[in-house]
Amino acid sequence: MALLELKEISKEYSGKKVLDTVSLKIQSGDMKVVMGPSGCGK
């Protein structure tokens, strides 16, 4: 069983798509990283 599961998440800010059907499953003991340049809104 996943600790956290996201399925087909989409999001727009001011008409600009920032997430397009993103899916993610985090199991116990997993490590995930969100990377990007400074100031990009992570």
Automatic annotation (TrEMBL):
Keyword ATP-binding among UniProt keywords: yes
SUPFAM superfamilies referenced in this protein's UniProt entry, alphabetically: P-loop containing nucleoside triphosphate hydrolases
GO molecular function: ATP binding
Record keywords: ATP-binding, Nucleotide-binding
Native organism taxonomy: Bacteria, Pseudomonadati, Pseudomonadota, Gammaproteobacteria, Enterobacterales
Organism domain of life: Bacteria
Protein name, UniProt field: Amino acid ABC transporter ATP-binding protein
InterPro entries associated with the record: P-loop_NTPase (IPR027417)
